[in-house]
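Task: encode each sequence below as structure tokens.

Item 1
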Amino acid sequence: MHILENLNSSVVANWERGSRGRYQFTGCNDARQAALSRALDSLYTALVGTIIPDSQASAATTSEAFRVFFGDRVGAAFVTRILTEVITGKAKRAPIRGFSSGSPTFVCVDPTQPEKNFNMTGPDGSTTDAISWCTKGPTAAYVNPLPFIILCPKFFLFHEGPISGKVDCPVVNREANRFRRKRRDGSGVAGASVYANIQWILLEEIVHYYLYAQSEVIQRDPEVYNINKAWGLSPREQLGNAPNYSYYASSKFPDRLQRDVGIFG
């Protein structure tokens, strides 16, 4: 993941600032701050009301969604801990100069405001600026080991809600015993509908923040996005694959996989 070279107090001094709970926003205009606040509120509602209680269920009542994306109950306490950290927004990184805390901080990239551009250096040493990077297609990215989650303009074009919309459910092909591709004709990417919803994109990026901040489970890098391959990872690998948390959450809220119980045997 890219390391930010010059996102510091002198650069962001005049940028828009905001927050929702412990989550911070910088460089995001009022409309984008409002969209992020709504998405975080919806995500909180889903996690508290449905997803975390499911992750805490007994072995006898383990949901099909949990078994598919985390394998067994061995990692249940870890999944619950990560999701609980998501709803609290607790800081796990040291604050960067100019920021009030090291909690997850969303940084909006806006090509219409080039004065707010900043440089990014990749693991290979190559340097690019954020606006150029976003034009290559990325939606969002967590920057390890910093508290920043970069949001490209494309992010705000995706479906905002309601989070319970049926369109966001991963759909199973019963005959093939696999997740169906995005379109019924077999084209597209299986599970892509999940990433048409900004709540689940946010969840993945926030999970990256908390996975990188712990040492119990190795964070998969690069992560596995293909939903069928994510399903096929070992339980230990699934715990370290951030997309599995979004696939699990979107399957439990609403409970699409539970209604299809029995087809994974």
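Item 2
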Amino acid sequence: MSDETAATEPESHNTGFVPGDDFTTRWGNHFRYLTGRMTLEGVMQSKKYLDDRNEIPDRERCEKHRDFVLKYSPIVRFMQDKITQLGGDIHSGNIRIIKCPTLQAGGFDSEYGILMCSNHIKGRKHFEDTLAHEMIHAYDHLRFQVQWENNLRHAACSEIRASTLSGECRWANEFFGRGDWKLTKHFQDCVRRRAVLSVAGRPNCKDDTEAAKVVNEVWGSCFPDTRPFDEVYR
């Protein structure tokens, strides 16, 4: 093999992923993934390749989801009204849709607004649940003056409330979407698991152990708190 040929050989070859959109290349990648011949690095390379290729259609699809739920979703319209009553304003201009490098579907920043990750949104219902989750963070920020950067207990409480109230932990999502087939206690388990993951990802959290500890400390007061709803209706 010549030096030139070696230089043009895909660097990702050893990981099991080969870039390309033709049928043979795509099937080869899929087959290597199914048979365990694609490394974790190869899986991430494949994900990034697809994210880059689909960036524009993913964004356009999510923009349609955003416009639809702002107009027709009961929970989004309800949260929008409650946030407005607190002096905030959530609208299409500060619900920003981008391709995200991290494995998250959305995020909230008190200065920037709400971020929706077009490359991780699976459909309109997923978009609605994720947006509702982030809108609950926005509500908590205005209503309770959450100290996101330096108070893990504040962040943990808001994560518990957001997972409880947004609908993302409804039984159907867990059963069909995440393969959790338990018929009892799935809701609380889902809320706790997702809250721990979110807190663990914060820069001021040491590790998963600290995240679980903080979530447990505030669970008793935050899980039953359904404001601004009367109850968990989803």
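Check on item 2: The CA atoms of residues 169 and 187 lie 6 Å apart. The beta strands are 95-98, 106-109, 113-117.
End of task.
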